[in-house]
Write a structure and sequence with these properties.
Helices cover about 5% and strands about 35% of the residues. The chain has helices at about 1-5, 195-200, 210-215; strands at about 10-15, 20-25, 35-40, 45, 50-55, 55-60, 65-70, 75, 80-85, 90-95, 105-115, 120, 125-130, 220-225, 230, 240, 245-250, 250-255, 260-265, 275-280, 285-290, 300. The strands form 7 sheets. It has a 4-stranded antiparallel β-sheet with strand order 1-2-3-6, with no helix packed on it. A 4-stranded mixed β-sheet has the order 4-11-10-7, with no helix packed on it. Strands 5-9-8 form a 3-stranded antiparallel β-sheet, with no helix packed on it. A hairpin with an 8-residue loop joins strand 10 and strand 11 (about 105-115). The protein is elongated, with a radius of gyration of 26 Å.
């Protein structure tokens, strides 16, 4: 009889994606009711900076508490609102306290935080929904010299890290001795790829061939009120590319009217230049630009298992 009185009975039911948990102990059947705790059980996917509330419901008069397993990834307040802090995974545990009338119960769900949402446009790679450094798809984000992984704020040859101060002193990614030390590298390595360095995972900068797919296989619609273009793929999905302009030295040029987006490809006819797409009005061009200029980066990924829309 003593063993029976100490026995704790836990029941868990999953209905339509919701977790319902109840618990009770045999020595309190007469004085306490099983606490029922219900919350959406599916993984919560967020981008850094986003918030979303998941509020538990319960039949208990006990206090409900929300706890994050890793506040560096995601925090949760007393009302159940989750804030995405950095890329990674965390578990949100929800507790309802034991009271004189109800038993204790708990449940949990997983939060997955990424730097961007992955958008399948029906092309050879998947595209991020925002620029590196952007807090949302319409935000300009950061500006990078080609082959540099930090936004320096000053963009010219004297500060460019892949040369010795001039256009003829390239120290990496050079196929012509006139421009510097020849290594015949024509595509950025991941150590010099701002998308991979800042976002990690399988994110990377697109090649010029992958950018050409955006130009030739997608429909571009100017969104004047948002200073950019909606780019719609063959499958009907779309991304937004803001006209962020570019930076030279400490100045920003053409914001709101021109967009300049780096590829990972060197301009092999002129090793102090790299390939990019630039656009304005109804025009879109594949071109090249001084590697020291600060321009936008829109990452891509080959990994279909990443966080998607």
């Amino acid at each position: 009889m003593k063993l029976l009185k100490e026995l704790v009975v836990m029941t868990t039911t999953i209905i339509c994606g919701l977790i319902m948990v109840s618990s009770c102990s045999s020595d309190s059947f007469e004085s306490q009711k099983p606490a029922m705790l219900t919350i959406e059980a599916t993984n919560l996917k967020l981008v850094v900076g986003e918030t979303e509330a998941r509020v538990a419901t319960t039949n208990s008069d006990g206090a409900v508490t929300y706890i994050s397993s890793d506040v560096a990834v995601a925090t949760v307040d007393k009302e159940g609102k989750v804030t995405a802090v950095s890329a990674g995974e965390a578990t949100i545990t929800v507790l309802v306290a034991k009271t004189a009338r109800f038993t204790f119960a708990q449940t949990s769900y997983k939060v997955i935080v990424g730097f961007a949402r992955v958008v399948d446009l029906g092309l050879s790679v998947k595209w991020a929904d925002r620029n590196v450094g952007a807090s949302n798809p319409e935000d300009y984000g950061d500006y990078f010299s080609w082959g540099e992984t930090t936004a320096t704020g000053n963009y010219d040859w004297s500060t460019y890290t892949l040369c010795e101060g001039t256009v003829t002193s390239m120290t990496k990614y050079c196929n012509d001795s006139y421009y510097g030390t020849v290594d015949d590298k024509t595509t950025l390595e991941f150590t010099d790829d701002a998308a991979r360095a800042n976002w990690g995972g399988t994110w990377r900068m697109p090649t010029i061939e992958e950018i050409n797919e955006l130009k030739t296989r997608c429909t571009w619609t100017k969104q004047a009120e948002k200073n950019g273009y909606e780019v719609t793929g063959p499958n009907g999905n779309s991304i937004f590319l803001p006209s962020a302009g570019y930076r030279y030295e400490g100045n920003l040029f053409n914001p709101g009217t021109f967009g300049y987006y780096w590829s990972s490809s060197l301009f092999t006819s002129h090793a102090d230049y790299a390939r990019l797409i630039f656009f304005y009005g109804n025009f879109r061009y594949l071109g090249s630009s001084n590697r020291c200029y600060g321009q936008s980066i829109r990452p891509v990924t080959d990994n279909v298992a990443m966080q998607s829309e």
